[in-house]
Amino acid sequence: MKGFAHFLAGLTTATFVVVIANMYYGNNIIANEIVVHKALIIILGGIFGILPDTIDFRFAKYLQKHDYEVDMDEWNLNPQLVATTLAKAIDQANEENREVNVMLHTIKISSDQWRQYSVQFDTKNKKVICEIGPIISGFEKRPYITSYLPPEKAHAEASFKADLEYNYDAVTHVDILSGPDFSFFPEGNNKVRADFIPWHRRWGHSVTMGIMFAPIGFMLFGFTPLGWTAFWIIMLGYWSHILTDHFGLMGSNMFPPFTTKRVPGFKVTRSMSTLANVYTNYLDILLITFNVNALNYALSGKDYLSMQWLSYFGENISYVEWYLIGIMNYIVYYIIPPILASYLIVAWIRKRKGVKELSEKEARTAEQLEELGGANV
Amino acid sequence: MTIGYLLMAIAFVLIGSLIGSALSMLPGLHVYNVIGFFLLFYFTASFVLDPMFMVLMLIGMLVSYAFVFTIPSIYFSAPDDSTMFVLMPSLRYLKEGRGHEAVVLIATGALTGLFAIVLFVPLFMGPLSIVWDIVSTHLHWIIGAVIAYMLLSEFPKDFGRHKNPLHGLKEGWKTIMAGYLTFFLSSILGLITFNKTIVPANHAFQSLMAPLIGLFATSSIILNLISKYEIPEQNIPKSIDSTPQEILHGAVAGSSGGLFAAFLPAVTAGVGGYMASHAFAQKGDKSFLVSMGASRVVYYVGAIALFFLPVLHLRRGALAMGINLFFTPESVQQFYLVDMGIAIAGIFAFFVVIYASKFLAKRIYKINPKALNLIVLGIVVALVYFMTSWQGLIIMSVATAIGLIPVLFNSRRSHCLAVILVPIWLNMSGIALGGFFGLW
């Protein structure tokens, strides 16, 4: 998901925690702290909701060591170097039985122009293919038509011996800002697994890290009701990031140091898909509104949303009952219908236009490349 | 309401639009800076002028400003707080001879934002009022969350070449640290501006002018002066070659961001727009430019629509506050009259933008960019001096120095908006930092 969706998911989680903590501690201790004393505790949810990507893109990226770095410039374009280095790294991982990392740097020409190139792993024929592409213009990636190289200078191939396991689509483009890196892991029996941007969605995207950060709540507010609430907000806010990312294909490494591989995602959607992000944000904003109304109701008795279903139960219901009936009514009336209706309209338009659904491999590649662009840039 | 009254109302909207369009062509001048003078004029002439006509004239000025300020932002590279985000893609467009295309994309976005206000705000009267009732006691953490997101969502823009992890961290964090420094310094500047009247007391209502111009406009102009570039001959295409999806995506994202900014205090169109571009997973310059146009119009014009919206009457922005000095919205009829005024002024301003852009696109390449920037700088400095005296010039110089940090270190210019966000947020959260800086 985009950073914004994670941030909102963290805030949503925080509002749930706050409502539950307010019920648990009674006397509106938590609601009073937030509304009357202006406590900023809910923001912790957003901060820790976005933190896994912050850790990966601001720290983990730089801690990744590379055995090989391919760094070409416009005057020394050498597709053979790229193909040979990658093929060599694959076989080296297999022969030396260790992880081998390769970094492919981008080719910057001016402040807004880059030379694009692509690499392709042909696992069937055991070949790495490199193709030097055109000069492109910045973020729009518009190619300059006259900048293509003649085919004989643009194309190179190199063979490798190991059996490569690569779960992504064939072509990876290297173009703007920083380039991608690949890790090759020996898996035994002449088999090597390739991972794209190996520093991402590893330890930073783990359940373990959420547990490790949670005590910050006590550091901020002590062992008070507010401290315990902050503890849960931080932990669940952090986990909300891992959960929302898990709806994509890439998955995360959940329990480092006990696990080392990413657990594949639920494959429900691509994490950078516009619709997935919009629906998640819509859901979050509506849930935050409901929870904030619930806090107000606990404090002042004013229910601005006045859900219809509640009127069937009369006034003699507890706060917990009010909350549960209210949220179910809210979901059925306000959350599900707009999402369902817009989803059906989009599906109908796509079908009418004959938009082809991506295969799992294509979707996986698209997700990876979008992730490389930065979860938020 | 008679036909005569309606025609007079339309005439005042058009007069306001004309004045607003002319003033908005001046780089650095914000419509809020001149509204004060019009209010002073009105207070002396109020016995002959129906207050509603004055309201409609001011709305005409605001709507045309929201549209027409695109021209100085793009052709003269002098943005304000809400157009700073379009500067990078639009300057690229200008350097590629596509300045007019950028203007048309932003103006198209602005037009979609206008439709969103005119058509949808009346439909959502009830829900908007409910949402305001719910969130109004939670603004401290909502604005705090906006600030937290601004600070945490910027990622390094290095090119991945480093000798060792430490060197990599240093390179990667250069932009982030520059952003945080900008945020910190802008916050202090904001605290000083909000807590102490440095400009002469009779110009106190203009106190934000100098910092905002310094942070966004003069810093951009100085960058243009020190960097080598030429404006090529501009192409005036027959079509903007943008897909309906790109326009729709940009319009929905921008309108949502603008509404978010219009609804909440302290959040401006720029911040609302870029948060919405993240929320809608926006890709590509065209959709982005459309969204920024929509966001800006919904922010400025939406704020006034929310003020007139029956059952809500939310006062956001200097115009709503200014109007509230002599006028209290009372009826649904007034709201629809304002809605009509917004629509007329918007359509008028749209054509002004298109024709002004065509006029400039045909000539801009003949002007030496350095000379152009020097002229723009001269106009901006003169305006600041005229409006806020020499004290304003000093504040503008400090703000310019701060505004240059993100420009030179390639970090986000949105950090400069801490000048407004932080003081208002601290105030809402009951955190008193003014004393800490010896301001009380």
Topology:
The complex is a heterodimer of chains A (377) and B (440).
Chain A: H1 3-25, H2 29-36, H3 43-63, E1 68-70, H4 79-96, E2 100-104, E3 107-110, E4 113-122, E5 127-137, E6 142-143, H5 151-154, E7 155-159, E8 163-165, E9 171-174, E10 181-188, E11 191-196, H6 207-213, H7 216-221, H8 225-245, H9 274-300, H10 308-312, H11 319-353, H12 360-372
Helix pairs in contact in A: 1-3, 1-8, 1-9, 3-8, 6-8, 9-11
Chain B: H1 3-24, H2 31-45, H3 51-68, H4 70-75, H5 87-95, H6 99-123, H7 125-135, H8 139-152, H9 165-195, H10 209-226, H11 244-263, H12 269-279, H13 285-308, H14 317-323, H15 332-363, H16 369-409, H17 418-429
Helix pairs in contact in B: 1-3, 1-15, 2-3, 2-14, 3-13, 3-15, 5-6, 6-11, 6-13, 6-15, 8-17, 9-16, 9-17, 10-16, 11-12, 11-13, 12-13
As for the number of domains of chain A, it is: 2
The SSE string of chain A, one letter per element, is: HHHEHEEEEEHEEEEEHHHHHHH
What is the number of independent domains of chain B? 1
User: What structural class do helix, strand and pairing data of chain B support?
Assistant: mainly alpha
State the distance separating the first and last CA atoms of chain B: 52 Å
Oligomer: heterodimer
Beta-strand residue percentage of chain A: 15-25%
- In total, how many beta strands of chain B? 0
Residue-averaged pLDDT of chain B: 88
Unreliable segments of chain A (pLDDT under 50, ≥5 consecutive)? none
Query: What portion of residues of chain B belong to β-strands?
Result: under 5%
Over the alpha carbons, how many angstroms does the gyration radius of chain B reach?
21 Å
**Strand segment count of chain A:** 11
Helical content class of chain B: over 70%
